[in-house]
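Archive maintenance. Older records in this collection stored only the sequence; we are now back-filling the structure field for every entry so that each record is complete. The fields below show one back-filled record exactly as it appears after the update. Entries are processed alphabetically, and Peptide/nickel transport system permease protein is next in the queue.

ARCHIVE ENTRY
Title: Peptide/nickel transport system permease protein
Organism field: Microbacterium hydrocarbonoxydans
Length field: 340
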Amino acid sequence: MSTVTAETLAAPERRDETVARSAWPALRVIGATVVTAVTVFLLATFATFALGAASGSNPAAVALGEVATQADVDRLNHQFGLDRPFVVRYIDWISGAVTGDLGTSWFTTIPVADSIAQAFPVSLSIAAGATLFALVFGFAGGVLAAVTRGGTVDRVVTAVSTIAATVPAFVAAIGLILLFSYAIPLFPVAGYTPPEQNLGAWLVCLVLPSVALSLDAGADIARQLRTSLVGTLGENFITGARVHGLGPARIVFRHALPIASGPALSALGVHAPRLVGGAVITEVIFGMPGLGQLANRAALQGDVPVVQGVLLVTIAMIVIVGAVLNIVISRTGGTERSAA
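Back-filled structure field:
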């Protein structure tokens, strides 16, 4: 009786040790990803701030005009904090950014965070829409091409992907406007409607810029997934699944796709900076009041704090997306190959 009791008491401890051992690789990946993301963020923001400081822009001289005395310029530079050492200014800037304080515009005196808060949802909507279209088109095309390897569908998907990958986003945007706004007037030429004002109009105005921005990423995802999935479908565990009588759909989506999706998600990670940066360019073509328009106006004025704030938010978006994809890919790569 005592032996049974001891084994019963030891069983939960063994289960806890097993759970801890199985959770350790995931925690290690998450920890390494966080450290890498923070390091990249700090280096990128430091370089961004250094470029702004090296631009030579003197807001005091511009704001006060030619009649200003040197004393007036020095006083305004002191007010902006430009007379302090570079490292001190960077530390103050990045510390304030963590708490949401990005400083104020040199010319409008509006807090940079307020200006970005108004423009950020526009850019985020376009980038998210482009990511969604890229995933849908890429995964659908890659799966269809893989399961019809060598067939007509495979050749069509390959040809469309090759063409789509060579078309720049701004060229695709212009072509889509000519086709679906003028020749076939289905979507608005330009403008942006907030979702809280009209959800349907918000979705409609996002279609063309999102599709234009998603073509390159969707094509790369389709090619990567097609190659990976073809190789996975030839593995022994897939043959075992067929022998067990599993249906083609279950074999592809339940057993092969989770394993083969790693390279496709890696391709999305490579395109993440382009999707975020491309949203800034695409929204200018479609006349949307996003981060691109904000940064463009600020750059023309020499409003360094606004430009730096936009770049910081863009860098943060890219780093966060990359970190999330890295964790997802690491978990996908650990999928067990089983025909059960």
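Update note: The CA atoms of residues 81 and 88 lie 10 Å apart. The first helix runs from residue 2 to 54.
Entry marked complete.
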